[in-house]
Amino acid sequence: MLKTMPELSPLQPDGPEVPPDDAAAVNALRSAVMRLSRRLKHQRVDESLSPTEMSVLGTLARCGHATPGELARKEHVQPPSMTRIVAMLEAKGLVRLEPHPDDRRQKVVTQTEQAEAMLEESRRKRNAWLAELASGLDEDEWAKVRAAAPVLEKLAQL
Fold first, then answer.
1. Is the CATH number of domain 51-116 1.10.10.10?
2. Considering the entire predicted model, what is its pTM?
3. Which phi and psi (to 5°) does residue 66 adopt?
4. End-to-end CA distance of the chain
5. Which of the four, 6, 61, 85, 107, has the lowest number of CB atoms within 10 Å?
6. How many C-beta neighbours within 10 Å does residue 142 have?
7. Cα–Cα dist 33/157, whole Å
8. What's the rounded Cα separation, in Å, for the pair 11 and 47?
9. Which residue pairs, CB below 8 angstroms and at least 24 apart, start in 108-112?
10. Could you give the CA distance from residue 96 to residue 86 in angstroms, rounded to a whole number?
11. Kind of pairing, strands 107-111 and 65-66?
12. Please, which contacts does 60-67 make with residues 24 or more away whose CB atoms are closer than 8 Å?
């Protein structure tokens, strides 16, 4: 019989008890993702940008444009925080604020060509670093990583 993972909420630290096998897997996944994420963050092109600013630029690269409120929701930050982040990115020439086509009270945030070039260079550098790291894996391990990538992406989007 297929075992299902109980629903856990990040806002409910005392959620349902997780079966021991699943708890160990969840703990190992969390630990590995955090360590790998920290190491990837060190492979930055522009040290003057915070990880949050880089994340906002990445979000804009994926969605094209968004209002500050939409960005706040996607980045899981409060709207006033996103307003400050967008202002800093605009001051650095990495985003533009344009009038919203349907709502004059709102602005639409888009990234500049400078941001696109910087993100591309950052992706290239991080991908090269990760490929070098992965070269230490055997073929079976690499096949598992390839198979896990879409599942990890799904987890990241939940």
1. yes
2. 0.67
3. -165, 160
4. 25
5. 6
6. 13
7. 15
8. 32
9. 108/65, 108/66, 108/67, 109/60, 109/65, 109/66, 109/67, 109/68, 109/71, 110/60, 110/64, 110/65, 111/57, 111/60, 111/61
10. 9
11. antiparallel
12. 60/95, 60/109, 60/110, 60/111, 60/115, 61/111, 61/115, 61/116, 61/119, 64/110, 65/108, 65/109, 65/110, 66/108, 66/109, 67/100, 67/106, 67/107, 67/108, 67/109
Q: What is the pLDDT of residues 21-65, one digit of tens each?
A: 788 888 899 999 999 988 887 777 777 888 889 899 999 999 999
Q: Of how many residues is the chain composed?
A: 158
For residue 127, give both structure tokens. 């991908």
Q: Where are the alpha helices (DSSP H) in the chain?
A: 20-41, 51-63, 68-75, 79-91, 113-134, 139-157
Report yes or no: 134 and 145 within 8 Å, Cβ to Cβ. yes
Structure tokens at 54: 């880089």
Measured CA to CA in angstroms, residue 112 lies from 59, 62, 99, 119, 156 at distances of 13, 14, 16, 11, 26
Asked if pLDDT for residue 110 goes beyond 50, the answer is yes
